[in-house]
Amino acid sequence: MSLSVEPTNTMDYQPIIARLYQQQSRRVLATLIRLLGDFELAEEALQEAFMAAVQQWPEQGMPEHPAAWLIRTGQRRGIDQIRRRQTSRHHAHLVAPDDDTASLDERSIAHDPLRLLFTCCHPHLALEERVALTLREMCGLTTEQVARALLHKPATLAQRIVRAKRKIRDAGIPYEVPDARDLPERLPDVLRVIYLVFNEGYSSSAGESLVDISLSTEAMELAEALAELLPRGEVFGLQALMRLHDARREARQGPGGDLIPLEEQDRSRWDRRRIREGLSRLAQALALTPTGPYTLQASIAAEHARSPSAEATDWARIVTLYEALYRRQPSPVIALNHAVAVAMRDGPQAGLRLLESLEGHKAVVGYHLFHAARADLHRRAGHLQAARFAYEHALALTAQEPERRFLERRLAELSTS
């Protein structure tokens, strides 16, 4: 979605309206979806509202409350559309008198982005639909941008988004923040989608680039908005986790975009401001109980952030945190990370013994990082042939070019040993 401003007599207002579109359009859209009850109609109304601003503000002046003006204008344009289409009775309640302002109170508008986020992340939708819809509607990415981020063809992605919107409409999914009774069950789905968006930006699953700053930034902004309206421990925990990871961004890549593993990173390039922000959010999370999985993961990231080097890291503390995380969220991937931490604490043989116990899990057999971790531990233990075999296995499963180049370098180093 983009805003085209005609270069006529709007020169003084062009930067103002363009900036307002960039900063407020998603919030205006969230309210219009609530008022009009339809995603597509709300998007059309949003565009018409901004075009009305382009035409009217140069002559009439900018209103005192621009966002409220845009919402009201968009609502009227949407109602006009409904009337023109002569839609069925279930739209009749939307055709309200022009002076009805009850639905535009500040508290209601402030909660509309949160309502939209919970709607996009509803469990009735498939996980891929939730991620795509969140990127499209909450983050304002174009269909082409979402398709590129999720490695789909634009036509396929567009169909997925249309299907998700149809599900919301046909299933009567309510446009609301869950009540206190349902919130603990629904919140993890929202946090999971936000973290998936962040991870795709922080470490792309495939392609030429290791990171996509725009995606990780969008995820952090979503979490920021969520924390403002829903200050729960795990929301702060996710904020902390993302900031602490993002602090390493510049050190994770070499000049040519090559991957640099954690233990080899130049920690002077870590963003200290981001680390301070992450530690502050972590303190907020730890003050609220119970401690959830995102807070535990953030606690692990904090140990790395506080340490001047990989060797000086408190690996015993990290092992303990992974054990606590596994108890709350048992998964082979967490067990894999625990094994790597044990290897750093007790030596590669100890880690390899734990990795051997995971070989029967389907979730890790096809996971390139499992084979990469096993290869690294064999390399450190001096098992060069086993390391070579594991690196080749990992390479065959890797779709991301920077990771492929890293694994190829490791294989080349083994050949010269």
Provide an overview of this structure:
It is a single chain. It is built from 19 helices and no strands. The chain is mainly α. α5 packs across α8 (183-202), α8 runs antiparallel to α9 (213-229) and α18 packs antiparallel against α19. The model is unreliable at 1-8, 95-102 and 205-211 (pLDDT under 50).
Quick structural gist:
The chain is an all-alpha fold and 417 residues long. Helix content is 67%, strand content 0%. The chain has helices spanning 14-36, 39-60, 66-85, 106-120, 127-138, 143-149, 154-170, 183-202, 213-229, 233-246, 272-286, 293-306, 315-328, 332-346, 348-356, 362-365, 368-381, 384-397, 401-415.
Give the number of DSSP strands: 0
Span between termini: 54 Å
Order of helices and strands: HHHHHHHHHHHHHHHHHHH
Mean pLDDT: 86
Shape verdict:
elongated
Structural category:
mainly alpha
- Our Rg estimate from Cα atoms comes to 25 Å
Uncertain parts: 1-8, 95-102, 205-211
Sheet-strand content, in percent, reads under 5%
Please summarize the sheet with the most strands. Answer: none
Which bin fits the share of residues in helices?
A: 55-70%
Question: Please, how many helices?
Answer: 19
